[in-house]
Amino acid sequence: MDTHQPHAPTAIDADLAWTAVMRRDRAADGRFVTGVLTTGIYCRPSCAARHPKRENVRFYSSAADARGDGLRPCLRCKPDEISREQAAIEKALRLLEQAEEPPSLQRIAEAAGYSPHHFHRLFRRATGVTPANYARGERARKMAANLRQSERITDAIYDSGYSGPARFYAEAKSRLGMTPSAWRDGGRGETIRWTIAETSLGPMFLAATEKGICRLSFDEDEAALRRRFPNARIERGGAALDQLAARAVAAVEAPERAHDLPLDVQGTAFQEAVWHQLSRIPPGENLSYAALAAKAGKPGAARAAGTACGANPVAILIPCHRARRGDGSAGGYAYGLERKARLIEQESRSSKLL
What we know:
354 residues; alpha/beta; DNA Methylphosphotriester Repair Domain; Arc Repressor Mutant, subunit A; Double Stranded RNA Binding Domain; 4 domains; four-stranded mixed beta sheet
């Protein structure tokens, strides 16, 4: 008689895990594996295979625990391979975020255990950007934080890891949009143009600098923009902004599609880290505030992650509607839960057709 009993899952909420499996939630991949006792295999939560019956499922905190119960990896979703890739990406992200100087692709790939060419493709598929672009983004986020703490811009430049002012301004020209002094002074010296366009979600308020969109919202007007940027020159937009608005409307009507709209946004270092993680969530999927906080480098700061979502200045373009509470409920949304539900429904419907 076989008296072997499966390992008990470690620190796994079985109900939440089952919900993730039923949604095929890619955000849960790497956090646990699903063991199917009738077939003797274990899978990623997002496995595309037919769902097993709930009573035949056990959840394991690691693939090793599942193998310890005699289960073998699914040949369809390859959970062991995905776990290795996720670990490599997380290791690379830590290296990029902690490095004072942007490391070379060779160094990052070696640390992750892959060849440079293969890792470059793997990293871009996982994050949507190249390692070099991610490194520049990290340095810009450090710069944004240091600007708020340093008396002199030059000190902030060196503290952020730039070799000198020339290097910083060369990158800032394409990344930062508003000048550092304008960032700290309510848009002083900047001209911001605005317009309102109709969408299926209601009137969309759009504002932009010469560098890109600094505000996309609903239920707002010029007065709200002036409160946000009290020292900027505010003007009604012209033909150029109308073209940008048309592209923004297209992004609102199809939130599941990637966009290439230029953005000129700012936040604290933590806010920008959360916004970056939001942009990495695939359409039709979601991530809890707690998971967002952990990925942004502050485990346990779920409430702060929710606040960062609420501070998102460009609705939909940075998809804060993909964030939820840990219990799976919708949480909040600056422009109303009805709009959030419609966005999620649109993305879920479109993802099922892919």
